[in-house]
Fold this sequence. Notes:
This protein has about 425 residues and is an alpha/beta fold.
Amino acid sequence: xxxxxxGGRIIDAKxxxxxxxxxxxxxxxxxxxxxxxxxxxxxxxxxFRVIPAEGLLVTPGLIDIHTHLREPGFEYKExxxxxxxxxxxxxxxxxxxxxxxxxVNDNQSVTEYILKKAKEARLARVFPIxxxxxxxxxETLAEIGELKRAGVVALSDDGHPVTNSQLMRRAMEYARxxxxxxxxxxxxxxxxxxxxxxxxxxxxxxxxxxxxxxxEEVMVYRDIQLCxxxxxxxxxxxxxxxxxxxxxxEAKKKGLPVTAETAPHYFSLTEEAVIxxxxxxxMNPPLRTKDDCLAVxxxxxxxxxxxxxxxxxxxxxxxxxVEFEQAAMGIIGLETALPLTLSLVHRGILTLPQAIAKxxxxxxxxxxxxxxxxxxxxxxxNLTIIDPDLEFQIDIQTFRSKSKNSPFHGWxxxxxxxMTMVEGRIVFNQLTxxxx
Length: 436
């Protein structure tokens, strides 16, 4: 199929492009980008189909660096099919899925299974992340070379911290050999164990066991020190505290290969969302204080935090509709990440190019994904068309995800993906009735 995406505002943060242009797509790749008005002749364009994008944003396809697709093993929460349906509805053309499945993605067979199911779904591209340790137990290293050959793009025991510092060091040394970044879940279990929300005045008032900021920060510090020792690229997942932001900022000033992500809930909500014992506000790391929320926003603005990730964590209603202490931790985020990120633009915290960079160029750079995160000639036509001013209300009943565990139900938002294109194929469309 030949397409012209006509008249959109093109934002390509990697190449510092912010201009109104036409994009020509042929055989799944970007054929050309032309300023308005297009220089191509009417005869040349006769067999191209037009997608009108005047007044809309056209960006590289969004990339989620931190997704839990649950399959294999937990298909009652999410499958690769439903997860990628949610992804493209949220504007994401690619997702990187964590290894905490059952069986764990610590071997070639599981990686190949994930890639096979993603190919069958034919929606968002799926990049598996392999486990650091066998079974996520933190005792022995997974077969890192085997995982690399099978197709993983990074290593992480996300959901479980690697508490053994020597094992983490060895993992980072092996990862460097195979040119894989290490994604760290920073949590000191001796400090966080039994905790169900942020430790502070609100947890005391509610009578709930708290998780102190130090539980995250001491492990951020440790892993930064190991990064300095091994010189292996380190990516800090789901940053939630002011102290973590500052530690990462200082590491970057030293020139260490450290990157970081946060999730929309950490710059949109505070611990007060738990009042009323709302299990939809239960997650790990937990929602923090207003000062932490502001520090995360500042970290995004000054570049300390490179990426906004969904940390999409689907759970069945039976795992959430229980007493707060017993409820599962985590929320879904693929279909709310973009509008929540754009809220930072509407509030004047980020510029539009900054916000788009956190969802495109940033994750592509961290995972070393060539031909992703930008728009250039001959690259795959992975792109997202966004109406930044479209007002709507979040309704979990319309979500494509199999699970509905979101604290943002009913929020009035501004900004939404209207079309998602993967390698020239329209995989989600609310823009205009176009048939291929």
